[in-house]
Backbone:
């Protein structure tokens, strides 16, 4: 019986070896079975240009309300509503009959004053000769000389009156004070115009160039000035900072504007500063009051590290972290600091080094210490072109550990 038991045990042992294979090979297969497949992204450094989008409004470069400067009946309108006009172009014609008559009267008075002056000069010349011969008294000569000076003053007054009459005649033709696009006419022919009346006749907006106003805090303005002065933000040839804008339909305005810093004041309640950018507008695409998004530069980062926002998670306090695969193919939880967002990627300020592998897919299946089988995903884009998304600090919203709570947009 003992021999039979030994034979049965030996057979069972051989059967087990034939099913499980050799010891080391079985261990390798079991290890491979436990490795969790994940997709990783290799951390790389590359230069980026960070920018941020800020809501703004377009403002006309200059606005002129047209009003009459003389009284009279409006005879006709001389422009087409909505057209482009140039400075000095006639817009309206007011009845000039009375002003032409006043100008004619002023010219006649000037001619009379000049004739009297000529007579006074002739009398003064004769008196000056006679007084030398004692043929007339000194008092009489003084009177003759004074008549000349009086006549000269009268001529000057008559010339001023004539100039005033001519100005009124010119004012009967109401001209454009600036170049720009003229609005609708708010008066019609036949209406009585009063000099400097409250009601305007029309409005002219100069739209080329045009302003774009945005709001920034005083702290952000000071930082922007420092970045421009230090060269972190590339300046235009005239020393100003470049600005791009996006229109309401999402398209990008093709021309680059210039950011102006002068003439700003800090709001007492909001603590914000109005920044004004100037854009060329040769085709009239931009109109006053349009909502736009100004893309302001935040600076160049020559050796930046960016990672996909899908790879970033947040702990219970809202602090960001990622899963890194080490040389043993095990998962490590790594705390990081992020700042700006460029499209769907975070700019990492600290916590990662070039060459490290960060898990971007399969995050929900792993935890710290897990064994994984990494495979490379798409290469990280080299963000050397200006970023179009808003640069912002990391959001403070917390999420449970292990959840992918990275936001695709950041609010400054």
Residues:
């Amino acid at each position: 019986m003992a021999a039979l038991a030994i034979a049965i045990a030996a057979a069972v042992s051989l059967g087990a070896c034939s099913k499980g294979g050799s010891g080391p090979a079985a261990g390798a297969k079991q290890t491979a079975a436990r490795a969790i497949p994940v997709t990783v992204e290799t951390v790389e450094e590359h230069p980026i240009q960070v920018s941020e989008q800020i809501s703004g409004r377009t403002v006309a470069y200059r606005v002129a309300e047209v009003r009459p400067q003389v009284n009279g009946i409006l005879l006709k309108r001389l422009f087409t509503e909505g057209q482009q006009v140039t400075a000095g172009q006639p817009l309206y014609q007011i009845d000039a009959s009375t002003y032409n008559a006043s100008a004619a009267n002023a010219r006649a008075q000037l001619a009379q004053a000049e004739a009297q002056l000529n007579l006074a000069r002739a009398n003064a010349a004769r008196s000056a000769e006679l007084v030398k011969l004692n043929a007339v008294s000194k008092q009489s000569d003084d009177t003759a000389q004074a008549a000349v000076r009086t006549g000269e003053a009268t001529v000057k007054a008559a010339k001023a009156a004539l100039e005033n009459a001519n100005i009124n005649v010119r004012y009967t033709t109401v001209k454009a004070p600036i170049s720009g696009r003229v609005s609708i006419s708010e008066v019609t022919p036949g209406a009585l115009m009063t000099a400097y009346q409250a009601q305007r006749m029309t409005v002219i907006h100069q739209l080329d160039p045009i302003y774009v106003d945005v709001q920034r805090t005083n702290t952000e303005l000071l930082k922007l000035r420092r970045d421009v002065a230090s060269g972190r933000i590339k300046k235009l040839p005239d020393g100003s900072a470049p600005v791009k804008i996006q229109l309401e339909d999402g398209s990008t305005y093709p021309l680059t504007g210039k950011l102006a810093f002068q003439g700003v004041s800090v709001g007492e309640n909001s603590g914000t500063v109005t920044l004004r950018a100037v854009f060329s507008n040769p085709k009239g695409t931009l109109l006053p009051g349009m909502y736009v998004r100004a893309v302001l530069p935040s600076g160049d980062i020559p050796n930046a590290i960016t990672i996909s926002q899908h790879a970033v998670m947040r702990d219970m306090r809202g602090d960001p972290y990622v899963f890194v695969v080490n040389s043993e193919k095990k998962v490590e939880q790594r705390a990081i600091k992020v700042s700006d967002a460029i499209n769907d990627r975070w700019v990492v300020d600290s916590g990662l080094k070039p060459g490290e592998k960060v898990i971007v897919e399969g995050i929900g299946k792993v935890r710290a210490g897990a064994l994984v089988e990494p495979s490379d995903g798409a290469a990280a884009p080299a963000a050397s072109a200006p970023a179009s998304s808003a640069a912002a600090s990391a959001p403070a919203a917390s999420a449970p550990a292990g959840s992918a709570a990275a936001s695709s947009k950041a609010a400054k």
